[in-house]
Amino acid sequence: MQNSTSLLLRQVISLPPQERAALVEGIIASLDRPDPSLDALWLKEAQDRLAAYDAGELEAIDADEVFAELGGSTSEPLRRAIRSA
């Protein structure tokens, strides 16, 4: 790590937890910039999958089956949210 980065890190670590969390959120948001071309590709992929499902060319897999296959590695709150969607 460069000296300026090390200094900045030491300063950030000395901040109260709420301020550090806000700083982290700001840094992550600065890295997560929308890419319209990528968004368009994902939209097309989702539309194609839905069309294939509607046409009977693609079957749905129950969420419990997927989670069981993953070894239950997904948290229960996420499971509940997916089931209720």
Automatic annotation (TrEMBL):
InterPro entries found in the cross-reference section: CHP02574_addiction_mod
UniProt-listed NCBIfam families: stabl_TIGR02574
Name of this chain's protein: Addiction module protein
High-level lineage: Bacteria, Pseudomonadati, Pseudomonadota, Gammaproteobacteria, Chromatiales
